[in-house]
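STRUCTURE REQUEST FORM
Protein name: NAD(P)(+)--arginine ADP-ribosyltransferase
Source organism: Sinocyclocheilus grahami
Requested output: structure tokens
Priority: standard
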Amino acid sequence: MAPNSVDDQYEGCREKMANLVVKKYLKKEFKDASKKDNKNATPPEDNLTSDHLSAIYIYTGNHVYNKFTNAVRNEKQNYKDKTFEWYSLHFFLTDAIQILNKAQNACISTFRGTNVKFNLDVLNKDVRFGTFTSSSLDRAVAKGFGKVSCFEIITCEGANITKYSNYPGEKEVLIPPYETFNIINVTNRTDENNLWCNTVYTLESTGAKSDRNCALFNKPIKAFFKKRLQQLKHFICRLFPWMTICK
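Status: completed
Returned output:
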């Protein structure tokens, strides 16, 4: 479950974090990249700001992707110790995903292809990617990124960022580090000859796990209960999707 993930979802401290980022981190961390990407990014829509758009544009570019992705997956302690190098990008990406996700008001079926071989004995196990994870609405696009281990994903926390991406043709859905999944199926090409990948893992969203939620502030009790209610809603909607709260 990616135990070292920087998985802050800012439940209960969004305004505090926004103020902290703007006053302390934004100017230094976005620096040259922000100037360059503000020139090319799509004008703000969907209740997003220019900072949200810069974050998406920076993330979907080629300059910081690998370094940032690895940092989010592994630097949990640095985040708490205030030595993390990516507070602004992490916050504005997370906030953008949450704003777009709220507008979507629905889970999304998406695909991810990799050239990495993963463990096969994982059926019914709970997992999370533990970093911002790119996927595509188009299976053919996902396949272009790898054919060894692939994922068919039902994400309920991710958001379609196609309109604001460096590469809109990739039809990207961005999944946040804190989203959790259950592996409901694992299929191999040895079992199904025309499978689109060597191994396909089917993941279904089960909620969120945010160990570092509001880690730079005192954790609010309200956020704790809100998180638990959110997880309960995901569980109920998997069993009874017709209920009013699931629409």
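Reviewer notes: The first strand starts at residue 108 and ends at 114. Residues 13-216 form a domain with the Toxin ADP-ribosyltransferase; Chain A, domain 1 fold (CATH 3.90.176.10).
Form closed.
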